[in-house]
Batch of 2 targets.
Target 1
Amino acid sequence: MKNGRYTEKQATKLRDRLAEIVDEHKRASMDLCWACYETYNAYIEIGGEPVAVWTLWDYDSWSDCVNIELGLHQTTAYQYKRIWETFYVNLASAWDVKLLLPVTKMRILCAAGLNRRNVNAWLRRGAKMTCSKLVAEVYGTDELRNLAVPVTSDELETINEVINEAREVFGKEPRGVILTKVLREWRGVHRKVKRARKGRGRLKIAS
């Protein structure tokens, strides 16, 4: 390969290597899922009382533990913990491990109402879909997209407060739906104010 140019044979080898990398990553990801589940649930008894093992490592919270020990944000760690709990605890021995999917798809499938009868069918369906299509299939919605917007802790707190308040008006819709409705309502109000200001401007000119 030179400057991105492949022969057909090289392209075939590239695809084979991609498959190897994905298999390696799937196994490594499940190791992380196990680590998140174990560190969350593991405890020892001190004076007859259960104490989380991460306290022995001088952490103030499980979130701090997984952040430092595993390099995972709390949200990601909770998702990984849920994957292990779903597939390796609740559905242990009920699914074909050869159908293991990349961690993102495994996370999505945790919301699919899995049971011992349908888990393999869901894994096979997920293997043939993009992540966004799988989300749409699981949640029964249009194909979804993620919106990554960096915000400060205070800004995030405000966003969550606004969404929770808006749910009192719009109902218990998904967060993305609520946020879209809030923005559309703001846009409608803004346009009305803008038209009103233009109208006042014309009146001043005429007078």
Target 2
Amino acid sequence: MPESFGKRARGDVNARKAAAREERRIARNKRREDRAAGLLAPGPPLAEPEDEVGTPPGERDTDG
């Protein structure tokens, strides 16, 4: 049976979703405060570039 079957289950799912939204809101506000204080660099976090699998080093496109 899916989680959304029945009124009680829907209430539980909605409560979990609300709790997840609240956690995301708190984390987002903390990041904003940290950026304002200069603890974090502005903008989204940058991901490390991934290596191209199976391509010899001399044949990789390094122009970007």
